[in-house]
Write the structure tokens for this entry.
Amino acid sequence: MRKVITSYINPDMDGIALMYSYCEYLRKNGEDAYYYFEGTYKKEVGIILDKFNITLNPTDKILADDEIILVDTNYLEEIPKSIIKDNIVEVIDHHNREKWIDECGVKAQIDPIGAASTIVAERFKKNNFDISRESAILLYYGVISNTMNLKIKLTNQRDIDMANWLKDLVPEITDEITTEIFVKKSEIGDNLREEMEVEFKDQFMSISWSMGQLEVANVEEFLNKYECDIRNILDTVSKEKNVEYMSVNCMDIINGYSSIVALNDKTAELISKSIGIEFTDLKAKTNELVSRKEIVKIIRNLYPL
Ligand SMILES: [Mn+2]
């Protein structure tokens, strides 16, 4: 039986790294493994593939009798429609654990750490499996990208340990290249709306909320240039999707702080009250790097379904 590893539609670096490397891991374990993804991967993935000359080789579809392994997600709404739920045999993730996992008795490792890539890196290390240059690079940047270069609070010691282990394996990985990748990733083109990720209401809270996120090299400079555009997009999307509380978290990945741009007063008040920062002109700056995941976790606890 084929095993096919996949993630949510339009996967990010963590998802792609896991698909590629866990496929390698399973093959080294004698399994008939493949990976598949739907949509377009996030911009950073393209930058890293180019930089290190790595080619992906996914299978082109999911077959009705494929055994499915989900990585970097366990939310059934986010995955390709062609997946039959009963075919899911394993989950590797670091997001909130959904009820269906235990109801179906699916094998799952879901740890609240910075990156799911850490989990597969640990499996390679623990079992003494040779890891290819490609898998090591992808997993390293899976960890680095999900943890903002190990800076966000959700970063776990396990993430740090695996990032160090992977970096030591591949001399091509240098801090200079990592900075270059972050800078390149923060060059926003004409697809600002897409990059902002504000299209979807959070499904896990009782209020109508959406928080987007942008990762940029210099937030101050960036907002000088784009704040008007960002506000126009917030306005348009909130009307189109009927979202009351909307904001975008702009993370300065070089200087280590976030600026949050809020759509309206009620969004600013809510965020201000939940994480204790002050807004001026619907904009607030944090002292340290705060990720959307951390903020959303607090809001979900305040407004549970
Ligand atoms: Mn992830």
The chain is about 40% helix and 15% strand. The chain has two domains: 3-183, 192-302. Residues 14, 72, 94, 115-116, 146 surround manganese (II) ion (CB under 6 Å). Strands lie at 3-6, 33-35, 67-71, 88-93, 107-110, 209-216, 245-252, 257-262, 283-285.
